[in-house]
Amino acid sequence: MQAVLDYLKQHQARFVAELCDYLRFASVSAQPQHNKDLLACAQWLVKHCQNIGLDARLCATADHPIVIAKTPKAKAESGKRKAETKLKKPHFMVYGHYDVQPPEPLELWTTPPFEPRIAGRNLFARGSTDNKGQNFAHLKAVEAYLKTGTPLPCDLTFVLEGEEEVGSKNLSGFLKKHRRELACDAVVVSDTGMPAPKHPALTYALRGIIAFEITLHGPARDLHSGIFGGAVENPAMALAHLLAKVRDDNGRIKIPGFYDGVASLSKYERAQIKRYPLSDAGLKKLLGAPQLFGEKGFTATEQRSSRPTFEINGLTSGYQGEGSKTIVPSWARAKITCRLVPNQKPEHVRKIVCAWLKKICPPTVRMEISAGHGAEAYLVSPTSPPAQAALRALEKAFGTKPILMREGGSIPIVNEFKQVLGADTLLLGLGLPDDNAHSPNEKFNLDCFANGQRLSAFLWQELTR
Length: 465
Ligand code: BES
Ligand code: MN
Hints:
Strand content: 15-25%
Largest sheet: 6 strands, mixed
Structural class: alpha+beta
Oligomer: single chain
Radius of gyration: 24 Å
Distance between the termini: 14 Å
Bound molecules: ligand BES, manganese (II) ion
């Protein structure tokens, strides 16, 4: 094991340079003009995995390919050894994604998003924390085992997909098709957060999500607002009016049934959440908001980890160019997502939300709702033997006691790991609150990168102890 740790220490500079190569691919899954970049990135990954000694292949899907890389199976050996190797080793899957969020707005980046830049202990680039840097840490740990000839106590399969940021549409069918090959004792995912470089965390809950778009249609075309304004509905005004009815002044969602089944936090959980080192004042400063706002009766950490939300992600209508244009727009649109917590069924929430919006929609506009992706929240026991093993590995790697967290983001596919493969997921995030995931100037902390590699190295030992 010491050889593995020494190897990691000795090769940090090269690892960072390689991560920069990985980050240069503009693998933006939401934008079709980047399809070629996703393919090139996946091909680069396959090559890289092969170079470090993994059996790797590219698996085409209807959209972006999936990279599968496995620790090599022992070669044909003498009779006795062969019989021994038939005793199956534990098998773990490491899941990550090589696709990234759109980098826009570009003008807010200090340097271009796909030209990695290092400043102090930070590496800036789109996808650095979400998720290339985090999954690369696991690849470097396995490289250290393979290159130092240190036996791994388990088999590993890496599944690196290119569609996480757009809903993992093809991975779910892939899991079903390859359920035997991918059957495993647990899945390990580093695609979440930790509170600070010295505060590692095990995340035991994620929020679920539903996405949809509302369009309100008014007049058949944009109209002169002087000639016709006042005599016809303005769809942008109608949409603003409608959306304003969704929540009250206390930040509570007013849609009947929205909170049905939402469990209140236990004393124990509230106490755990209190240990989270980011204070409300710290959060306010980090976010650059004039004030914090949220559902009354809950702390900021509680609100963003364990309460459901209704968010407008985008709002579009009328003239968006420079200067003024006097029109009544023909239509208005809102992109919406709701974050869900355990016990909320995505399709049920979608039904009641859409039905209520339709009910309160005035007859002066026609409402069209198009459904997007959906996923249940995730909750896993933080006291199971694998979770305890992960906590030990985190402590060894970072040198401090990890905390238990619930997080607000979503990783829809982890539900399918449970349903299709029967495997629980260990969420061992390496992202920091100020990493700017999904925002301009995304970064990854190089100490988190290095300690993440150590975490991965210790993890395989602890999981098989
Ligand atoms: N890594 C995030 C999810 C995440 C971030 C979980 C921080 C916990 C803490 C992931 O890449 C992501 O952004 N997921 C999307 C899912 C959506 C597109 C279905 C999300 O949460 O918005
Ligand atoms: Mn993301």
